[in-house]
Amino acid sequence: MTVPEVSDRLPVALDAVGGDFGAPPLVEGAVQAARAGVKVLLVGDRVRLHAELGRYEDSASLPLEIVDAPDVIGMDEHASDVRGRREASINVANGLVKEGRASAVVSMGHSGASMASSLLTLGRLKGVDRPAILAHLPSKTGFVTLLDVGANADVKPAYLAQWAQLASTYLSVVEDKASPSVGLLSIGEEDHKGNALTLEAHALLRQMPGLNFHGNVEGRDILKGTTDIVVTDGFTGNIVLKLAEGEAKVLFGWVRDALSSSLLSKAGALLVRGALRGVAARLDPSTYGASLLIGVKGLSYIGHGSADARAVKNALLRADRAYQSRLIERLTVAMTGQA
Amino acid sequence: MTVPEVSDRLPVALDAVGGDFGAPPLVEGAVQAARAGVKVLLVGDRVRLHAELGRYEDSASLPLEIVDAPDVIGMDEHASDVRGRREASINVANGLVKEGRASAVVSMGHSGASMASSLLTLGRLKGVDRPAILAHLPSKTGFVTLLDVGANADVKPAYLAQWAQLASTYLSVVEDKASPSVGLLSIGEEDHKGNALTLEAHALLRQMPGLNFHGNVEGRDILKGTTDIVVTDGFTGNIVLKLAEGEAKVLFGWVRDALSSSLLSKAGALLVRGALRGVAARLDPSTYGASLLIGVKGLSYIGHGSADARAVKNALLRADRAYQSRLIERLTVAMTGQA
């Protein structure tokens, strides 16, 4: 492989109009990323985006460009509506990646539509039957990588094996983790415990050369960080992700209530507030910004519709870094043995 | 239905030798339950149990009896080993329920073996294809009832519908909750979101007369208490249960670390300690003691192998209360329309 010097400076395409709050947090995040040196193409209605950009005094001097896309897929439309909507921001953004004019696409809009658009526009990597959504969760050991968190509700054992390989390559490339360990999410540590899907997947994973397969892991292992990667179907993974986020909120609510339950605890709360803020920051989903749709022929990041500017910025930074480390080329090699 | 006055005083059968720590915590829990007025049959090796009981000065005056069972299923044996082991404590305990000599069986031993023993000895209720394990999780609204948490890794849509009915009856009988709401765990609130299993189950649940079906719930809804009951397959449910318990441990570890991270936070920690202890107590799994194997023809409670005396006591109290409220008769009526 030769070093693609010029393309190292390709911009990241941001769907700058999709999401729960429209352009404002998206443009703000892009401005922050641009200030940090990342080039960004803002894709969406040109007039709206110019108006939004105008709010930032330094915007003219930043590596930001607007790419017009008059249409947008609303949060309440169907994912399949993405077909044939050529001028929809998410389709234009994916097109830029396909044409080699952008390094990656980042979307905080309709998740299903973003997924469909990337799949239809970019296609799948060779050796990948179904792309998966890869997310990070804060864990005892830093973070744990979980996939699939929602792209595929019904899966086959071979998908799980492919995802294990993709995630393993991803972590070694992007996070410099040598030989990351992979756990198969199941209902018992023993090899023979699980459902029909995991029992078959377990057998496949055991045979994969070069994969650091730990074996089955249980629900309690996920945040304990027993393995670097946890592989599961998109139904279970989605529930795990949302339960983990939801539980953190409920538990912190209880801690907050407890700290204001008496004069004594209120006084103590003043002293521990700073320390607890560190814990809350650790749990903040905007740290990662967005999840990677892994398995498509291009970098595609999909985040929460409610993403704030910090999440947008972090997603753009991650996308840029993944491109710099040639993630797609490395995944291609891993899945097919060819560059 | 006539009131079974005599049998109201039936004892609960406890497998008093199964579990990670053998007889000591089990006998201690039984002694505590007996002091609270619950009759208990301690099932296991007579000599060991007499020795253990001898440690409690008041044991002779308590409503405790020993039933000899020379054999025990070890924690590392296979669930199927329960077949043909007539003298194994768990089989003897289930036999006491079957013969009408005990009101319920409580086991902290090998979960798979306990489940198999109850299923083989007691049989299924009419209208129930597969019994499920019903557990309670602490939630924002008090607690949420979740099933199946591990009895069935692969399930059919009809099982989920039956479990919804069983759990609904259970909550109205045992917790006096009128028309408890039922959520189907899925990956989107909309009716059309889910996997093949939940889509079919959703349609079945929608048609059930008398069931307060809320619709789909997501991972984040579980601890929020969106519904009183969450129904799911035993694979997903087991992962949910263990993740929820595991996350609570990890988060409290972080809070603990944060509170001892500086002199300031250490000082504050002294003041908030009492308040936080309340939160920890809320999350303590021993509050519920054990989970109910619902759908078998008799009361069968199955708890953690690592259960402490408090968990054992609470499980015995719950079993006794469920018997007093004629749970099995009420479930029979609910599933077949006959007493």
Automatic annotation (TrEMBL), chains A, B:
Pathway: Lipid metabolism; phospholipid metabolism. PANTHER family: FATTY ACID/PHOSPHOLIPID SYNTHESIS PROTEIN PLSX, PHOSPHATE ACYLTRANSFERASE. This is Phosphate acyltransferase. It is an enzyme of class 2 (transferase). The gene is plsX. It catalyses: a fatty acyl-[ACP] + phosphate = an acyl phosphate + holo-[ACP]. GO terms for biological process: fatty acid biosynthetic process; phospholipid biosynthetic process. One of its GO terms (molecular function) is phosphate:acyl-[acyl carrier protein] acyltransferase activity. HAMAP family: PlsX. Belongs to the PlsX family. It holds the Pfam family FA_synthesis. InterPro entries: FA_synthesis, Phospholipid_synth_PlsX-like. SUPFAM superfamilies: Isocitrate/Isopropylmalate dehydrogenase-like. Homodimer. Probably interacts with PlsY. It comes from Deinococcus ruber. GO terms for cellular component: cytoplasm. Its EC number is 2.3.1.274. It is found in: Cytoplasm. Keywords: Acyltransferase, Cytoplasm, Lipid biosynthesis, Lipid metabolism, Phospholipid biosynthesis, Phospholipid metabolism, Transferase. Catalyzes the reversible formation of acyl-phosphate (acyl-PO(4)) from acyl-[acyl-carrier-protein] (acyl-ACP). This enzyme utilizes acyl-ACP as fatty acyl donor, but not acyl-CoA. Its main location: cytoplasm.
